[in-house]
C-alpha cells in the first residue's frame, strides 16, 4: 500500500518534498549513529586473563581498558572476594556479566559510570531461600589440625549472624542461605572467607605473619596489636632463647621503649631493677618504681634477700627471676598504659611485665634438643687503664712530700706509713685486672623438651641445665671456683571434655640453683691494688701476707683469701598453677585458677682459719660460720566469669572476677664462732666462746602481706573498626590501716581502625592499616613495705639491759596514710604500609602521681626513726614512644627485616608540699636558688657544686661559692650548678637471611650521664690499710705538682684535710657528671639450617648449628668501666661466646 501510494501520479509536490527531507535526515542520523556505535564498540573491547585475584583489581583493569569509571557503596565489595576470568575482545556488558556471575552483585551503566550494587532478591527468591536454608556446622583448625577455641564465624553482610567456636573448635550456624559466605577469623591468624554448606569437615586457618596479628597476652585474656587500644610490647621465645642470659628479664633490654633495666654487676643472679616510663613517686621505697611481674597469671617477686634477713640492703639481694629458666618461656608482654594495667589495680601503677611459659600442643610427639657451650670474659673496654709501677710510686712519694712526711714502717697507725715504698719490690708489676678478673669461665647449656597430644589432652615436658661462672681465679688450696648452676624442669598438661565444655590445665615448674665458691666481688681489689703489691704465694706455696716484721703485721690483705671463704648456697623454687573452666553456654564460661609459689634458699657461709691474716688476727684467730634460711611463699586464688557474644554487628567480651593473694616471707640466721679447726666448721657443737658468753647468735624475721581485689572489664569491637574498653577494680591491701584499706581504680580505652573505611581504602591504597587510640585511667600503689601503719619493734642478742633483751621502736604509728594515686593518659597512632610490610606506632604518654607515700624522718631524740604520710604534692612523667617493624627485602635469595624502638622520657613537679624534705627532690636546686620548682624536672636536674678549675698557686680545686665567686671546698655552694640528665633509649634488631644462613644482631643505645671519678673511698696518693688499696687510673697523672701548673686534677696528699676535702667536693661537683652514653652490640647469632636432603637422611624434622656472642662491643665516651653499671668497683657485664646445635625430631 505504501509502495502504491508513493508511485501514484499526480501526488502533491509539498508532500513529496517533506518525505524526501525526512529520508535525508533519517539517513544522516543512522550514519552518525552507526559511526558512534562503531567507535564505542571499539573502545569497549575488553581482553584480560586473571586467576584468583580480587574483584577490585579486575574492575580497575576494566577501567583502564574501557575508560569507564565505577562506583560501589560501603561494604559492597570486599578485598577478600576473588574471581577467575578470561576475556577476549568482550564488550563491557559481557565482561561485567562474566565477572559478577556467581556473586550476589549486579550493575548498571549510566553514561560513563558503572554502578556496582548488591543484587536484590525477589519475593519468590526469598521464599525459596527460606526452604533452601541449611544449618552449617564445622570445625576451625590451625595448620596442624588443632581446634581453635573462640574463633569467630560470621555470615558476610548479615548483622548479628555470627558465633564462636567451642573449646574443640566446633561451631554451628542455623538457617544459613546456601549461597552465603562465611567469614572466619581468629587472633593471630589470617581471616578466611568460604562458601556456606551444610557440613564442613575442617576450615583451616593460616597463622598471620603480620606484626599486627601477633598474640599479645593481657590480664585474663589475649588480644593483638590490631585490636588493642593499649600500649604494650611483646618479646617472643625466639628472641629470648637466642640470648646468653641467666635471667628472662634481660631479654627485654633494648626491646621495650622507655624500659630501663639495670643489673647491679656481672655476677650470675645479681640484682636487677626495672623502671618503666620513669620514676613515678618521690618516696624512698617507691623510688624503685618497678613494674609488677606476673608469671602465668601469678604475681612474682623480682628480688629476694640472700643473707641476714636484711631485705632492704642492695648488696644482700638477688634477682629471684634468675631461678626461672628462660627456655621455658613462650613470650613476655610489657604493659605500660592504663588500659592494659588498670585491671591489676594498685599493683599495676608502674606497669606490668607478663611472663607466659610454654604450653603443650596437640599433634604427634615432637622432641627438641639444644646444646651449647662456650666461655665468658670481661670485655677489654670495661677494664681501666691504671697506673704502672713507676707512675704509682711517683704518686705516692709526691703525696708524702706534699704532706711533709717521711716514709716509715715502724708505726702502722702513724702518718707516713709506707710498706709499699720501703718493703715491697720497687720493680715488681702485676696486672691485677688480669690476675683477679681476667679468667674465662665456662658457659654451658643443655635442654630437652617433648610436646604432643590430642584435641582432648595435650602435654609438654621440658628439662634444662645451665652453668656459668665468673672470671675469678680457678680453684686453689681447696677453694672452690665460683660457679652458678641451674637445673630446672617444666610440665604443662591441659585437656578438655569431648563436648568442649570442661577444661583443665596444670603448670608445674621446679628449679634448683647451686651457687658455690666465693661470693665476694674481686673487682675492687683488681682496680685498687698497687701494681707492685706482693706475690700471691710465699716461697713455701702458702698465701703470702708479706709481713712487716717491725710491727708484726701483714702489709696487705691477700685478695685470694676471700676465695677461701666457704659459700654453699642452694635455692629450690616450685611454682604450681592449676586452672579449670566450664562453658555453661556457648557465650558464658566460668574459670578458676589457683597458684602456689615457694622459694627456699639455704646458705652456709664460713670464714676459715686458712683465709685469715695470721698477723693482724692473732688475738681473734678463730673460724666463723653462718647458716641462713630464707623462705618466700605465695598463694593466689582467681575465680572469674567471662561472656562472649556477637552483638549488633560487633563482638562483646566481658569478664568479672576476684583475686586473693597471700604472701609470707621468713628469714632465719644462725651464727657460730670460736672454731679452731677448719674441718669442723659445719659442726655446730664444735663452736666455742673463747672470750666468754655464748658462741651462737640468732636472728629471725617474718613478714606477711595480703591482697584482695574485685575487678571487671568490658571490650566491644564493632564492624572491625571501632573499639571500646572499660575496666574497674576495687583493691584491698594489708599495708594500710582499717580506714584506708581499699581503693577504686578504673580505665577506659577507645580505638578507631580508620583504614577499614571505604574512602581510606580508595584514596590511600598503600595504607594497609591505620588506627588511632586513646586510653585514660587510674591506678594506685602500695609499695611501702609491710606494717608501716603500725608501731614496730625489733630486738637483737646484742641489745640487752641488765641481762634482759629489750625492744627498739622502729617507727611511729600512722593508720591514716592511704594509697598513692596514679593517673595515666596515652594517645597512640598505629600504621601498616604496603600490606603490613612496614608496621609502625607512635605514642604520647603522661603519668601523674599524687598522694605520694613519703617517709618522714623524726628527730633522733624521739627514738622513733621515721613514719609514712601522703605528700600533698604531685609529679608528672611524660614522653614519646616509637616503634617500627619492617620487611626491607624479601625475595627467594635474600631477606632482611628490622625492628626498632625509641623512648623519650621527661618529668616535672606539679605541686610541692610544705612537708617535703629537700633531699627527696633533686629540685632542691631550684629552692636553694630561689627558683619556683613547679613545672621543673624533679629527677633529671641535680643541684651540685659548680667546679671552676684549679687554683694555680695552691693546687686545690676551686668551686663557686654562694656569692658566685671562686672558693675552696669548704666555701662552695652545694647547689651551685644544675646537671641535666635527659635519658633516651633506642633498640635496633636486624635479621639477615641468605639461603640456609641467618644472622641476627641486637644494638642498644642509651643516652645518659654518670659519675666518673669515684674517689670517695680515699683520695689519690693515700695507701688505704689494711687492704693496701692505693692505685688510680692513669688519667690522674695529669695533676698539679708546682705553682703555676695548669692541670686537670689538684695536688695529691695522704691525709691533709684541705686536699681530701677538695677531692670530696670534686666528686660531688658537676665536673664528675660525665657523658656515659653508649652504643652496644648486645647480641649476635649466626646460624645455619641443614638442607632438606641431609635432614631427610638424619630422619629429623629440622636441625641447625649456631654461634652466639653476647656483649660483643661497646662504643662510649665513658672511660671508667662499664657504662651500664656505672661503677668500676663492680664486675662489669661479661662478654660471652658459645657454639651449639638444635635438633627437632
Task: Please explain how this structure is put together.
It holds the Pfam family STN. The chain has 1145 residues and is mainly beta. Among the domains are: 1-40; 123-208, Sandwich (Immunoglobulin-like). The chain is built from 16 helices and 58 strands. The strands form 15 sheets. The chain has a 22-stranded antiparallel barrel. It is elongated.
Uncertain regions: pLDDT < 50 for 5+ in a row?
1-16, 18-43, 308-315
Name the average pLDDT: 85
Number of helices: 16
- Morphology: elongated
| CATH homologous superfamily classification of the domain at 123-208 | Carboxypeptidase-like, regulatory domain
- Please count the beta strands (DSSP E, at least 2 residues each): 58
Q: Ends: how far apart? A: 97 Å
- Please give the share of residues in helix: 10-25%
- The CATH topology of the domain at 123-208 corresponds to Immunoglobulin-like
Highest-level CATH class of the domain at 123-208: Mainly Beta
Q: Beta-sheet strand percentage?
A: 35-45%
CATH architecture heading of the domain at 123-208: Sandwich
Whole-number radius of gyration?
Answer: 38 Å
Structure classification: mainly beta
Largest sheet: 22 strands, antiparallel, barrel
Outline of the structure:
This protein has 1145 residues and is mainly β. The chain contains 16 helices and 58 strands. It has a 22-stranded antiparallel barrel.
Amino acid at each position: 500500500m505504501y509502495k502504491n501510494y508513493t508511485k501514484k501520479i499526480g501526488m502533491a509536490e509539498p508532500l513529496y518534498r517533506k518525505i524526501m527531507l525526512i529520508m535525508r535526515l533519517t539517513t544522516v542520523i543512522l550514519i552518525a549513529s552507526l559511526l558512534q556505535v562503531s567507535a564505542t564498540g571499539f573502545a569497549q573491547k575488553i581482553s584480560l586473563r586473571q586467576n584468583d585475584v580480587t574483584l577490585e583489581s579486575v574492575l580497575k583493569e576494566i577501567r583502564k581498558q574501557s575508560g569507564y569509571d565505577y562506583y560501589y557503596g560501603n561494604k559492597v565489595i570486599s578485598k577478600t572476594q576473588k574471581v577467575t576470568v578470561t576475556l577476549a575482545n568482550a564488550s563491557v556488558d559481557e565482561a561485567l556479566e562474566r565477572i559478577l556471575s556467581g556473586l550476589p552483585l549486579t550493575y548498571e551503566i549510566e553514561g560513563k559510570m558503572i554502578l556496582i550494587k548488591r543484587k536484590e532478591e525477589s519475593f519468590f527468591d526469598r521464599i525459596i531461600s527460606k526452604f533452601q536454608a541449611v544449618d552449617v556446622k564445622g570445625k576451625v583448625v590451625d595448620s596442624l589440625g588443632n581446634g581453635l577455641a573462640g574463633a569467630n564465624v560470621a555470615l558476610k553482610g548479615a548483622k548479628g549472624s555470627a558465633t564462636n567456636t567451642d573449646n574443640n573448635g566446633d561451631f554451628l550456624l542455623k538457617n544459613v542461605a546456601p549461597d552465603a559466605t562465611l567469614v572466619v577469623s581468629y587472633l593471630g591468624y589470617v581471616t578466611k572467607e568460604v562458601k556456606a554448606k551444610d557440613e564442613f569437615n575442617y576450615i583451616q586457618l593460616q597463622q598471620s605473619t603480620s606484626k599486627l596479628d601477633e598474640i599479645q597476652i593481657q590480664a585474663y585474656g589475649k588480644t593483638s596489636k590490631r585490636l588493642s587500644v593499649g600500649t604494650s610490647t611483646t618479646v617472643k621465645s625466639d628472641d629470648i632463647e637466642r640470648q646468653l642470659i641467666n635471667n628472662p628479664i634481660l631479654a627485654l633490654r633494648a626491646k621495650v621503649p622507655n624500659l630501663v633495666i639495670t643489673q647491679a654487676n656481672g655476677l650470675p643472679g645479681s640484682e636487677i631493677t626495672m623502671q618503666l616510663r620513669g620514676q613515678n613517686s618521690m618516696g624512698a621505697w617507691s623510688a624503685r618504681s618497678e613494674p609488677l611481674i606476673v608469671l602465668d597469671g601469678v604475681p612474682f617477686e623480682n628480688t629476694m634477700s640472700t643473707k641476714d634477713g636484711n631485705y632492704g640492703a642492695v648488696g644482700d639481694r638477688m634477682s629471684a627471676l634468675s631461678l626461672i629458666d628462660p627456655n621455658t618461656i613462650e613470650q613476655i608482654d610489657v604493659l605500660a598504659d592504663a588500659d592494659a594495667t588498670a585491671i591489676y589495680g594498685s599493683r599495676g601503677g608502674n606497669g606490668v611485665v607478663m611472663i607466659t611459659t610454654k604450653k603443650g600442643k596437640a599433634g604427634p610427639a615432637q622432641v627438641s634438643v639444644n646444646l651449647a657451650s662456650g666461655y665468658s670474659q670481661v670485655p677489654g673496654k670495661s677494664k681501666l687503664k691504671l697506673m704502672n709501677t713507676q707512675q704509682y710510686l711517683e704518686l705516692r712519694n709526691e703525696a708524702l712530700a706534699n704532706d711533709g712526711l717521711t716514709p716509715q714502717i715502724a708505726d702502722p697507725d702513724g702518718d707516713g706509713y709506707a710498706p709499699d715504698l720501703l718493703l715491697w719490690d720497687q720493680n715488681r708489676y702485676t696486672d691485677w685486672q688480669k690476675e683477679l678478673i681476667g679468667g674465662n669461665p665456662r658457659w654451658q647449656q643443655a635442654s630437652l623438651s617433648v610436646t604432643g597430644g590430642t584435641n582432648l589432652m595435650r602435654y609438654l615436658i621440658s628439662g634444662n641445665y645451665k652453668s656459668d661462672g665468673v672470671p675469678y681465679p680457678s680453684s686453689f688450696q681447696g677453694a672452690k671456683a665460683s660457679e652458678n648452676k641451674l637445673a630446672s624442669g617444666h610440665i604443662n598438661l591441659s585437656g578438655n571434655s569431648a563436648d568442649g565444655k570442661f577444661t583443665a590445665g596444670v603448670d608445674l615448674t621446679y628449679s634448683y640453683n647451686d651457687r658455690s665458691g666465693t661470693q665476694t666481688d674481686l673487682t675492687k681489689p683488681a682496680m685498687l691494688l698497687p701494681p707492685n703489691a706482693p706475690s700471691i704465694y710465699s716461697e713455701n706455696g702458702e698465701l703470702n701476707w708479706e709481713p712487716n716484721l717491725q710491727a708484726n703485721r701483714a702489709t696487705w690483705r691477700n685478695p685470694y683469701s676471700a676465695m677461701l671463704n666457704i659459700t654453699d648456697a642452694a635455692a629450690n623454687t616450685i611454682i604450681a598453677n592449676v586452672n579449670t573452666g566450664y562453658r555453661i553456654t556457648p557465650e558464658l564460661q566460668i574459670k578458676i585458677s589457683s597458684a602456689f609459689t615457694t622459694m627456699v634458699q639455704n646458705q652456709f657461709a664460713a670464714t676459715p682459719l686458712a683465709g685469715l691474716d695470721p698477723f693482724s688476727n692473732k688475738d681473734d684467730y678463730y673460724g666463723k660460720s653462718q647458716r641462713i634460711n630464707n623462705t618466700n611463699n605465695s598463694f593466689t586464688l582467681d575465680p572469674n566469669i567471662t561472656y562472649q557474644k556477637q552483638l549488633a554487628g560487633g563482638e562483646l567480651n566481658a569478664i568479672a572476677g576476684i583475686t586473693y593473694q597471700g604472701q609470707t616471707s621468713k628469714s632465719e640466721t644462725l651464727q657460730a664462732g670460736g672454731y679452731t679447726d677448719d674441718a669442723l666448721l659445719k659442726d655446730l657443737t664444735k663452736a666455742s666462746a673463747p672470750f666468754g658468753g655464748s658462741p651462737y647468735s640468732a636472728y629471725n624475721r617474718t613478714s606477711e602481706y595480703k591482697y584482695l581485689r574485685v575487678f571487671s572489664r568490658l571490650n566491644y569491637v564493632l564492624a572491625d573498626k571501632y573499639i571500646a574498653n572499660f575496666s574497674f577494680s576495687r583493691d584491698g591491701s594489708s599495708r594500710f590501716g582499717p580506714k584506708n584499706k581499699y581503693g577504686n581504680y578504673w580505665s577506659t580505652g577507645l580505638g578507631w581502625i580508620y583504614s577499614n573505611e571505604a574512602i581510606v581504602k580508595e584514596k590511600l591504597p598503600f595504607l594497609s592499616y591505620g588506627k588511632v587510640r586513646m586510653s585514660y585511667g587510674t591506678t594506685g600503689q602500695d609499695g611501702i613495705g609491710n606494717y608501716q601503719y603500725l608501731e614496730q619493734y625489733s630486738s637483737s642478742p646484742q641489745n640487752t639491759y641488765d641481762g634482759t633483751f629489750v625492744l627498739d621502736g622502729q617507727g611511729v604509728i600512722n593508720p591514716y596514710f592511704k594509697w598513692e594515686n596514679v593517673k595515666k593518659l596515652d594517645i597512640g597512632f598505629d600504621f601498616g604500609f604496603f600490606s603490613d610490610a612496614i608496621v609502625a606506632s607512635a605514642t604520647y604518654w603522661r603519668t601523674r602521681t599524687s598522694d605520694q607515700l613519703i617517709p618522714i624522718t623524726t628527730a633522733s631524740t624521739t627514738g622513733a626513726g621515721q613514719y609514712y604520710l601522703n605528700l600533698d604534692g604531685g609529679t608528672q612523667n611524660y614522653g614519646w614512644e616509637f616503634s617500627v617493624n619492617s620487611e626491607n627485602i624479601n625475595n627467594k635469595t635474600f631477606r632482611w627485616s628490622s625492628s626498632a624502638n625509641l623512648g623519650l622520657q621527661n618529668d616535672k613537679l606539679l605541686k610541692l608540699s610544705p612537708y617535703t624534705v629537700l633531699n627527696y627532690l633533686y629540685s632542691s636546686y631550684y629552692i636553694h636558688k630561689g627558683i619556683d620548682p613547679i613545672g621543673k624536672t624533679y629527677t633529671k636536674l641535680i643541684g651540685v657544686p659548680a667546679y671552676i678549675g684549679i687554683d694555680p698557686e695552691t693546687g686545690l680545686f676551686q668551686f663557686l661559692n654562694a656569692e658566685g665567686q671562686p672558693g675552696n671546698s669548704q666555701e662552695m655552694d652545694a647547689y651551685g650548678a644544675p646537671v641535666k640528665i635527659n635519658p633516651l633509649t633506642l633498640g635496633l634488631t636486624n635479621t639477615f637471611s641468605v639461603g640456609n644462613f641467618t644472622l641476627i644482631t641486637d644494638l642498644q643505645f642509651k643516652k645518659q650521664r654518670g659519675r666518673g671519678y669515684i674517689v670517695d673511698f680515699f683520695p689519690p696518693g693515700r695507701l688505704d690499710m689494711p687492704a693496701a688499696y692505693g692505685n688510680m687510673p692513669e688519667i690522674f697523672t695529669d695533676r698539679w705538682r708546682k705553682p703555676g701548673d695548669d692541670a686537670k686534677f689538684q695536688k695529691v696528699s695522704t691525709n691533709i684535710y684541705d686536699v681530701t676535702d677538695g677531692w670530696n667536693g670534686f666528686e660531688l661537683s658537676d665536673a664528675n657528671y660525665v657523658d656515659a652514653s653508649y652504643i652496644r652490640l648486645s647480641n649476635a647469632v649466626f646460624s645455619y639450617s641443614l638442607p632438606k636432603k641431609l635432614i631427610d637422611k638424619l630422619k629429623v624434622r629440622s636441625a641447625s648449628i649456631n654461634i652466639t656472642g653476647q656483649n660483643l662491643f661497646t662504643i662510649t665516651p665513658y672511660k671508667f668501666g662499664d657504662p651500664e653499671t656505672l661503677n668500676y668497683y663492680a664486675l662489669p657485664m661479661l662478654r660471652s661466646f658459645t657454639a651449639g646445635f638444635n635438633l627437632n625430631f
